[in-house]
Amino acid sequence: MKQCPYCNAQIADNSKFCGECGKELPQENVCTHCGATVNEGDIYCEICGRNLKNGSYVSSDDGKSGIDYMKILLSSLLGIIVGIVILAVIGGSWYGCNEYAAYKERAAAREKFVTDSLEQVRKDSIKIVERKEQERINAEKFAEFQEKFTFKNVLALLKQPNNAALAEKCGLSVIEGVFSDTKRIVYGYDVKKGEQLTTNEYELKPTSKHACSLVIYMYDKVSADLSFIDKSDADALFNMAKDYGLIECQDNYYIPTNKIANGITVVDELESIDGGVQFMIVEPREGAEWSFINIWSQE
Predict the structure, then answer these.
(1) Structure confidence by residue, pLDDT tens digits, 69-95
(2) What is the four-CA torsion angle of 100, 102, 106, 112, rounded to 10 degrees?
(3) What is the pLDDT of residue 69?
(4) Helix axes 151-159 and 231-244, enclosed angle (nearest 10)
């Protein structure tokens, strides 16, 4: 029995109208298959298990399994998405860190390159300045030497070969002194001793592009070897000899005791020369490293 909600009369459970007041009774949600009361919104009957809409059966754990499966699926998908995001963040951070480190390394390399380049430019500039200054000093030194190293002074030194004052006046320094067995003396400009060749002889090493040496041999007659690194310096001295006055006889050149004229005077016989000749001089000739002028005494 149930109670009418309008007049509170006792009526049968399956009544649709109240027998006392005649009003239609509100219908409860019931399963259309077994008549059991169901809650509003239920999909399946809790008593018979049928689908309340289409009447199909489902096992008692299908709904729960479906719901659990969806939960698992969603949880898995969510986990995958979260994992992907985490990996992306970690990967991005790792890539960013590596890229930043590489950027810093490249920047440091560029900075070092620029610093090294500037330092090299500074050193090269200093070398250029030093080289220019040295060239200026050498040019001034050579100009002073040219003023002293005249053919007249060379002849004076050949007449007094062991005169250091005359050598200095000629712009030359003593490289090797006189030895009794060799009877020679070596003067030079921008020349130093090199390898020892014999007991009293040394190789002569030039220290500039205008280096020259004068080796004088003092036997019965004086002779000399003039050596120049630059052939033009040898030619210049020979031209000075021509200006001093040379005699050409049978393809040889002689220095007259008394100057006849500038340039070269050609004769057939030396006896025709008034006062005679002092030295015979050979035109400059090139060697392996030096250019030579030989001078022999004729007196």
Answers:
(1) 677 778 788 888 888 888 888 877 777
(2) 90
(3) 65
(4) 80
Residue bearing tokens 């809790």: 46
Distance CA 41, CA 117 (A): 84
Cβ atoms of 244 and 151 within 8 Å: the answer is: yes
pTM, rounded to two decimals: 0.57
206 CB burial (10 A radius; 0-12, 13-18, 19+): buried
Given pLDDT bands bounded at 50, 70 and 90, which one contains residue 230? very high
The per-residue pLDDT for range 148-207, each reduced to its tens digit, is: 898 889 989 998 888 889 999 999 998 887 655 668 889 999 999 888 877 767 788 999
Dist CA 141 CA 173 (whole Å)? 14
Rg (CA), the chain: 62
H or E segment and range at residue 24: none
**Nearest to 222, CA basis, from 293, 154, 159:** 159
Residue 255 has pLDDT above 50, yes or no: yes
Phi, psi of 225 (to 5 degrees): -115, 115
The answer to whether the CB of 174 falls within 8 A of the CB of 189 is no
- ∠ CA 274-277-280, rounded to 5°: 150
In single-letter form, the type of residue at position 113 comes to F
Residue 195 makes CB contacts below 8 A (sequence gap 6+) with 202, 203
Cα-based distances in Å from 142 to 127, 171, 293? 22, 10, 20
Higher-confidence residue: 295 or 59?
A: 295
Q: How many CB atoms lie within 10 A of CB 233?
A: 23
Q: Per-residue DSSP letters for 205-266?
A: EESSTT-EEEEEEESSSEEEEEEESSHHHHHHHHHHHHHH-EEEETTEEEEESS---SSEEE
